[in-house]
Amino acid sequence: MSASKVPVSILGVSGFAGSELARLVADHDSLSLVGVAADRWQGSKLGERVRVPASVGKLLVAPMSDAITVARQSEVALLATPAEVSAKLAPELLAHGVRVVDLSGAFRLEDPAAYPRWYGFDHPAPELLAEAHYGLPEVASASTRTGGAKDARLIANPGCYATAAILALAPLVEAGAIDPGSMYVDGKSGVSGAGRKVEERLLFMEVDENLSAYRVGNHQHTPEIEQALSRAGRARASVTFVPHLLPVRRGLLVTAFARLSGAVPPAQIEALFRRAYAPADLVEVRAPEDVTLAQVAYTPYARLGVRADAERGSVVVTSALDNLLKGAASQALQNLCAMIGAPPLSPH
Protein backbone atom coordinates (compact mmCIF):
# COMPACT_ATOMS: atom_id res chain seq x y z
CA MET A 1 0.00 0.00 0.00
CA SER A 2 1.31 3.45 -0.92
CA ALA A 3 2.04 5.62 2.11
CA SER A 4 -0.04 8.36 0.54
CA LYS A 5 -3.19 6.27 0.42
CA VAL A 6 -5.76 6.39 3.21
CA PRO A 7 -6.79 2.91 4.46
CA VAL A 8 -10.55 2.35 4.30
CA SER A 9 -12.81 -0.49 5.44
CA ILE A 10 -16.38 -1.32 4.42
CA LEU A 11 -18.81 -2.96 6.83
CA GLY A 12 -21.88 -4.36 5.10
CA VAL A 13 -20.15 -4.89 1.76
CA SER A 14 -22.68 -7.46 0.50
CA GLY A 15 -25.54 -4.99 0.03
CA PHE A 16 -26.12 -3.09 -3.19
CA ALA A 17 -24.63 0.12 -1.76
CA GLY A 18 -21.79 -1.77 -0.08
CA SER A 19 -20.82 -3.43 -3.35
CA GLU A 20 -20.78 -0.05 -5.11
CA LEU A 21 -18.61 1.31 -2.31
CA ALA A 22 -16.08 -1.49 -2.82
CA ARG A 23 -15.83 -0.71 -6.51
CA LEU A 24 -15.47 3.04 -5.96
CA VAL A 25 -12.93 2.82 -3.15
CA ALA A 26 -10.83 0.25 -5.02
CA ASP A 27 -10.70 2.54 -8.04
CA HIS A 28 -9.76 5.73 -6.16
CA ASP A 29 -6.14 6.81 -6.31
CA SER A 30 -6.11 8.26 -2.78
CA LEU A 31 -7.75 5.31 -1.02
CA SER A 32 -6.77 1.76 -0.14
CA LEU A 33 -9.43 -0.82 0.68
CA VAL A 34 -7.94 -2.86 3.53
CA GLY A 35 -10.89 -4.76 5.00
CA VAL A 36 -14.49 -5.76 4.33
CA ALA A 37 -17.17 -7.51 6.37
CA ALA A 38 -20.63 -8.96 5.74
CA ASP A 39 -22.34 -12.05 7.11
CA ARG A 40 -23.91 -12.98 3.76
CA TRP A 41 -20.55 -13.27 1.97
CA GLN A 42 -18.30 -14.25 4.86
CA GLY A 43 -15.38 -16.43 3.82
CA SER A 44 -15.61 -15.41 0.14
CA LYS A 45 -12.96 -13.45 -1.69
CA LEU A 46 -14.26 -9.98 -2.52
CA GLY A 47 -13.33 -10.43 -6.18
CA GLU A 48 -15.70 -13.39 -6.42
CA ARG A 49 -18.61 -11.06 -5.60
CA VAL A 50 -17.65 -7.60 -6.89
CA ARG A 51 -15.70 -6.56 -9.97
CA VAL A 52 -12.61 -4.98 -8.41
CA PRO A 53 -8.87 -5.03 -9.23
CA ALA A 54 -7.16 -8.35 -8.53
CA SER A 55 -5.11 -6.94 -5.65
CA VAL A 56 -8.29 -5.94 -3.80
CA GLY A 57 -10.22 -8.98 -4.96
CA LYS A 58 -8.04 -11.18 -2.74
CA LEU A 59 -9.55 -9.65 0.40
CA LEU A 60 -11.57 -12.16 2.40
CA VAL A 61 -15.00 -11.03 3.55
CA ALA A 62 -15.07 -11.26 7.34
CA PRO A 63 -18.22 -11.94 9.38
CA MET A 64 -19.85 -8.97 11.06
CA SER A 65 -18.84 -10.39 14.42
CA ASP A 66 -15.30 -9.32 13.43
CA ALA A 67 -16.40 -5.89 12.16
CA ILE A 68 -14.51 -3.87 14.77
CA THR A 69 -11.31 -5.85 14.23
CA VAL A 70 -11.61 -5.34 10.47
CA ALA A 71 -12.31 -1.63 10.79
CA ARG A 72 -9.43 -0.98 13.19
CA GLN A 73 -7.05 -1.60 10.28
CA SER A 74 -8.41 1.54 8.64
CA GLU A 75 -8.55 5.28 9.23
CA VAL A 76 -12.11 5.52 7.95
CA ALA A 77 -14.90 2.94 8.07
CA LEU A 78 -17.80 3.08 5.63
CA LEU A 79 -20.93 1.60 7.21
CA ALA A 80 -23.39 0.13 4.71
CA THR A 81 -25.36 -1.52 7.49
CA PRO A 82 -28.94 -1.18 8.80
CA ALA A 83 -29.53 1.86 11.00
CA GLU A 84 -29.77 -0.08 14.25
CA VAL A 85 -26.48 -1.86 13.49
CA SER A 86 -24.71 1.39 12.56
CA ALA A 87 -25.97 3.08 15.72
CA LYS A 88 -24.14 0.45 17.78
CA LEU A 89 -21.01 0.14 15.63
CA ALA A 90 -20.19 3.83 15.21
CA PRO A 91 -19.57 4.70 18.89
CA GLU A 92 -17.20 1.77 19.28
CA LEU A 93 -15.32 2.63 16.10
CA LEU A 94 -14.96 6.26 17.16
CA ALA A 95 -13.65 5.12 20.54
CA HIS A 96 -10.91 3.24 18.67
CA GLY A 97 -10.01 6.35 16.68
CA VAL A 98 -11.65 5.18 13.44
CA ARG A 99 -13.62 7.87 11.63
CA VAL A 100 -17.01 6.89 10.22
CA VAL A 101 -19.14 7.63 7.17
CA ASP A 102 -22.51 5.98 7.80
CA LEU A 103 -24.86 5.27 4.89
CA SER A 104 -27.83 4.39 7.11
CA GLY A 105 -30.22 6.73 8.89
CA ALA A 106 -28.63 6.11 12.29
CA PHE A 107 -27.19 9.62 12.66
CA ARG A 108 -29.25 11.74 10.26
CA LEU A 109 -31.84 13.03 12.72
CA GLU A 110 -30.83 15.39 15.52
CA ASP A 111 -33.69 14.47 17.87
CA PRO A 112 -33.17 11.09 19.60
CA ALA A 113 -36.90 10.95 20.34
CA ALA A 114 -37.57 10.63 16.59
CA TYR A 115 -35.85 7.25 16.29
CA PRO A 116 -38.49 5.01 17.88
CA ARG A 117 -41.14 6.40 15.53
CA TRP A 118 -39.20 6.52 12.27
CA TYR A 119 -36.62 3.74 12.73
CA GLY A 120 -38.17 1.50 15.35
CA PHE A 121 -35.45 1.62 18.03
CA ASP A 122 -34.22 3.76 20.91
CA HIS A 123 -30.94 5.37 19.92
CA PRO A 124 -28.00 3.89 21.87
CA ALA A 125 -25.71 6.91 21.32
CA PRO A 126 -27.84 10.07 21.37
CA GLU A 127 -24.80 12.15 22.33
CA LEU A 128 -23.41 11.63 18.81
CA LEU A 129 -26.44 13.03 16.97
CA ALA A 130 -25.40 16.65 17.51
CA GLU A 131 -21.83 15.88 16.45
CA ALA A 132 -22.65 14.07 13.21
CA HIS A 133 -22.22 16.10 10.02
CA TYR A 134 -25.14 15.74 7.61
CA GLY A 135 -23.21 15.19 4.41
CA LEU A 136 -25.01 16.69 1.44
CA PRO A 137 -22.00 18.42 -0.17
CA GLU A 138 -23.97 20.69 -2.49
CA VAL A 139 -26.23 22.05 0.30
CA ALA A 140 -23.98 23.18 3.13
CA SER A 141 -26.93 24.73 4.97
CA ALA A 142 -28.45 21.27 5.52
CA SER A 143 -25.88 20.63 8.27
CA THR A 144 -25.30 22.53 11.49
CA ARG A 145 -21.69 21.42 11.92
CA THR A 146 -19.20 24.28 11.70
CA GLY A 147 -16.47 23.33 9.24
CA GLY A 148 -18.60 20.85 7.33
CA ALA A 149 -17.13 17.46 6.47
CA LYS A 150 -13.49 18.49 6.88
CA ASP A 151 -12.01 16.89 9.97
CA ALA A 152 -15.38 15.44 11.03
CA ARG A 153 -15.26 12.20 13.00
CA LEU A 154 -18.74 11.09 11.95
CA ILE A 155 -20.66 11.84 8.76
CA ALA A 156 -24.28 10.86 8.21
CA ASN A 157 -24.70 10.16 4.50
CA PRO A 158 -28.14 11.40 3.35
CA GLY A 159 -30.85 9.05 2.17
CA CYS A 160 -31.52 8.63 -1.54
CA TYR A 161 -34.98 10.24 -1.61
CA ALA A 162 -33.81 12.89 0.83
CA THR A 163 -30.88 13.81 -1.41
CA ALA A 164 -33.12 14.27 -4.44
CA ALA A 165 -35.79 16.19 -2.53
CA ILE A 166 -33.40 18.50 -0.70
CA LEU A 167 -31.51 19.32 -3.90
CA ALA A 168 -34.88 20.14 -5.49
CA LEU A 169 -36.14 22.42 -2.72
CA ALA A 170 -33.13 23.89 -0.89
CA PRO A 171 -32.49 26.82 -3.28
CA LEU A 172 -36.14 27.81 -2.92
CA VAL A 173 -36.27 27.73 0.87
CA GLU A 174 -32.86 29.40 1.21
CA ALA A 175 -34.12 32.31 -0.90
CA GLY A 176 -37.51 32.46 0.82
CA ALA A 177 -39.08 31.88 -2.60
CA ILE A 178 -41.75 29.45 -1.39
CA ASP A 179 -44.11 28.93 1.51
CA PRO A 180 -42.18 26.39 3.66
CA GLY A 181 -45.45 24.74 4.66
CA SER A 182 -46.59 24.10 1.10
CA MET A 183 -44.11 21.46 -0.10
CA TYR A 184 -45.19 18.18 -1.67
CA VAL A 185 -42.78 15.54 -2.96
CA ASP A 186 -43.72 12.64 -5.23
CA GLY A 187 -40.89 10.10 -5.36
CA LYS A 188 -40.32 7.08 -7.58
CA SER A 189 -37.42 4.65 -7.18
CA GLY A 190 -36.11 1.45 -8.67
CA VAL A 191 -36.26 -1.86 -6.82
CA SER A 192 -32.61 -1.72 -5.69
CA GLY A 193 -33.65 1.05 -3.29
CA ALA A 194 -35.21 -1.61 -1.07
CA GLY A 195 -31.87 -3.37 -0.64
CA ARG A 196 -30.70 -6.89 -1.38
CA LYS A 197 -33.36 -8.88 0.44
CA VAL A 198 -36.25 -11.20 -0.31
CA GLU A 199 -39.76 -9.78 0.14
CA GLU A 200 -42.96 -10.75 -1.62
CA ARG A 201 -43.60 -7.18 -2.81
CA LEU A 202 -40.13 -7.14 -4.46
CA LEU A 203 -40.56 -10.34 -6.46
CA PHE A 204 -40.39 -9.98 -10.25
CA MET A 205 -44.02 -10.99 -10.75
CA GLU A 206 -45.15 -8.37 -8.22
CA VAL A 207 -43.01 -5.51 -9.56
CA ASP A 208 -42.92 -6.03 -13.34
CA GLU A 209 -45.36 -3.81 -15.29
CA ASN A 210 -46.57 -2.36 -12.00
CA LEU A 211 -46.37 0.85 -9.98
CA SER A 212 -47.30 1.24 -6.33
CA ALA A 213 -47.02 3.69 -3.47
CA TYR A 214 -45.49 2.47 -0.21
CA ARG A 215 -44.91 3.72 3.35
CA VAL A 216 -47.39 6.52 2.72
CA GLY A 217 -47.16 9.01 5.58
CA ASN A 218 -44.56 6.87 7.31
CA HIS A 219 -41.35 6.98 5.27
CA GLN A 220 -38.21 7.57 7.32
CA HIS A 221 -36.85 10.14 4.86
CA THR A 222 -39.72 12.53 5.66
CA PRO A 223 -38.27 13.95 8.91
CA GLU A 224 -34.82 13.99 7.30
CA ILE A 225 -36.08 16.16 4.43
CA GLU A 226 -37.96 18.45 6.81
CA GLN A 227 -34.96 18.82 9.12
CA ALA A 228 -32.57 19.73 6.29
CA LEU A 229 -34.98 22.20 4.69
CA SER A 230 -35.79 23.77 8.07
CA ARG A 231 -32.08 24.37 8.57
CA ALA A 232 -31.63 25.69 5.03
CA GLY A 233 -34.57 28.09 5.25
CA ARG A 234 -34.21 28.91 8.95
CA ALA A 235 -37.92 28.30 9.38
CA ARG A 236 -39.94 25.17 10.10
CA ALA A 237 -40.49 23.24 6.88
CA SER A 238 -43.39 20.85 6.36
CA VAL A 239 -43.25 18.25 3.59
CA THR A 240 -45.83 15.76 2.39
CA PHE A 241 -43.84 12.91 0.86
CA VAL A 242 -45.14 9.84 -0.97
CA PRO A 243 -42.67 7.28 -2.41
CA HIS A 244 -43.48 4.80 -5.19
CA LEU A 245 -41.82 1.62 -6.41
CA LEU A 246 -40.86 1.52 -10.09
CA PRO A 247 -40.27 -1.71 -12.08
CA VAL A 248 -36.65 -0.76 -12.87
CA ARG A 249 -33.34 -1.85 -11.37
CA ARG A 250 -32.00 1.52 -10.32
CA GLY A 251 -32.62 5.22 -10.54
CA LEU A 252 -34.81 7.63 -8.63
CA LEU A 253 -36.87 10.64 -9.68
CA VAL A 254 -38.80 13.04 -7.49
CA THR A 255 -41.18 15.78 -8.51
CA ALA A 256 -41.51 18.52 -5.90
CA PHE A 257 -44.33 21.08 -5.81
CA ALA A 258 -44.64 24.25 -3.74
CA ARG A 259 -46.47 27.56 -3.59
CA LEU A 260 -44.43 30.64 -4.48
CA SER A 261 -44.14 33.30 -1.76
CA GLY A 262 -43.62 36.23 -4.12
CA ALA A 263 -40.15 37.00 -2.72
CA VAL A 264 -38.53 35.91 -6.00
CA PRO A 265 -40.20 36.72 -9.34
CA PRO A 266 -41.24 33.54 -11.22
CA ALA A 267 -39.07 34.53 -14.18
CA GLN A 268 -35.98 34.41 -11.94
CA ILE A 269 -36.54 30.99 -10.37
CA GLU A 270 -34.50 29.03 -12.92
CA ALA A 271 -31.61 31.49 -12.59
CA LEU A 272 -31.79 30.97 -8.82
CA PHE A 273 -31.10 27.26 -9.33
CA ARG A 274 -28.32 27.85 -11.81
CA ARG A 275 -26.55 30.17 -9.37
CA ALA A 276 -27.05 27.80 -6.45
CA TYR A 277 -25.51 24.83 -8.24
CA ALA A 278 -22.93 26.58 -10.44
CA PRO A 279 -20.09 25.47 -8.09
CA ALA A 280 -21.39 21.88 -7.94
CA ASP A 281 -19.60 19.54 -10.34
CA LEU A 282 -22.14 16.75 -9.82
CA VAL A 283 -25.44 18.65 -10.07
CA GLU A 284 -26.81 19.66 -13.47
CA VAL A 285 -29.71 22.08 -14.04
CA ARG A 286 -31.64 21.39 -17.24
CA ALA A 287 -35.15 21.72 -18.62
CA PRO A 288 -37.64 19.61 -16.60
CA GLU A 289 -38.34 17.42 -19.64
CA ASP A 290 -34.63 16.52 -19.79
CA VAL A 291 -34.59 15.07 -16.28
CA THR A 292 -34.82 11.30 -16.77
CA LEU A 293 -33.62 8.13 -15.09
CA ALA A 294 -31.65 7.15 -18.18
CA GLN A 295 -29.56 10.32 -17.94
CA VAL A 296 -28.37 9.61 -14.39
CA ALA A 297 -28.38 5.81 -13.98
CA TYR A 298 -24.89 4.41 -13.29
CA THR A 299 -23.49 7.94 -12.79
CA PRO A 300 -22.67 10.06 -9.71
CA TYR A 301 -24.69 12.99 -11.05
CA ALA A 302 -27.98 14.53 -9.98
CA ARG A 303 -30.02 16.31 -12.63
CA LEU A 304 -32.60 18.98 -11.81
CA GLY A 305 -35.25 20.82 -13.79
CA VAL A 306 -37.37 23.71 -12.52
CA ARG A 307 -40.35 25.62 -13.84
CA ALA A 308 -42.32 28.37 -12.14
CA ASP A 309 -45.96 28.98 -13.01
CA ALA A 310 -46.70 32.68 -12.57
CA GLU A 311 -50.40 32.24 -13.33
CA ARG A 312 -50.94 29.70 -10.56
CA GLY A 313 -48.26 30.97 -8.20
CA SER A 314 -46.54 27.61 -8.00
CA VAL A 315 -43.23 25.97 -8.84
CA VAL A 316 -42.40 22.42 -9.95
CA VAL A 317 -38.94 20.89 -9.61
CA THR A 318 -37.88 17.51 -10.99
CA SER A 319 -34.80 15.81 -9.54
CA ALA A 320 -33.24 12.54 -10.70
CA LEU A 321 -30.25 10.52 -9.52
CA ASP A 322 -28.93 6.99 -9.26
CA ASN A 323 -30.17 5.74 -5.90
CA LEU A 324 -27.10 3.54 -5.39
CA LEU A 325 -24.55 6.22 -6.38
CA LYS A 326 -25.47 9.86 -5.71
CA GLY A 327 -28.18 8.48 -3.43
CA ALA A 328 -25.72 6.30 -1.51
CA ALA A 329 -22.21 5.12 -2.45
CA SER A 330 -20.73 7.89 -4.61
CA GLN A 331 -22.09 10.52 -2.21
CA ALA A 332 -20.42 8.62 0.63
CA LEU A 333 -17.19 8.79 -1.38
CA GLN A 334 -17.69 12.56 -1.78
CA ASN A 335 -18.04 12.81 1.99
CA LEU A 336 -15.09 10.56 2.72
CA CYS A 337 -12.85 12.58 0.41
CA ALA A 338 -14.02 15.87 1.90
CA MET A 339 -13.32 14.44 5.35
CA ILE A 340 -9.70 13.55 4.52
CA GLY A 341 -8.97 16.27 1.96
CA ALA A 342 -8.70 13.97 -1.08
CA PRO A 343 -9.99 14.62 -4.62
CA PRO A 344 -13.63 13.40 -4.83
CA LEU A 345 -13.21 11.66 -8.18
CA SER A 346 -10.25 9.54 -9.22
CA PRO A 347 -8.52 11.11 -12.24
CA HIS A 348 -8.49 7.93 -14.33
From TrEMBL:
Entries under PROSITE patterns matching the protein: ARGC (PS01224)
Domain Semialdehyde dehydrogenase NAD-binding, first and last residues per copy: 7-147
GO biological process, one term: L-arginine biosynthetic process
Assigned EC number: 1.2.1.38
Function of the molecule: Catalyzes the NADPH-dependent reduction of N-acetyl-5-glutamyl phosphate to yield N-acetyl-L-glutamate 5-semialdehyde.
Pfam families, alphabetized: Semialdhyde_dh (PF01118), Semialdhyde_dhC_1 (PF22698)
Key words, A-Z: Amino-acid biosynthesis, Arginine biosynthesis, Cytoplasm, NADP, Oxidoreductase
Keyword Metal-binding: no
Family: Belongs to the NAGSA dehydrogenase family. Type 1 subfamily.
Active site, renumbered: 160
Catalyzed reaction equations: N-acetyl-L-glutamate 5-semialdehyde + phosphate + NADP(+) = N-acetyl-L-glutamyl 5-phosphate + NADPH + H(+)
Keyword Protease in annotation: no
Name of the protein described by the UniProt record: N-acetyl-gamma-glutamyl-phosphate reductase
Compartment(s) where it occurs, according to its Swiss-Prot or TrEMBL record: Cytoplasm
Single GO cellular component term: cytoplasm
Any GO molecular function: NAD binding
Pathway linked to the protein: Amino-acid biosynthesis; L-arginine biosynthesis; N(2)-acetyl-L-ornithine from L-glutamate: step 3/4
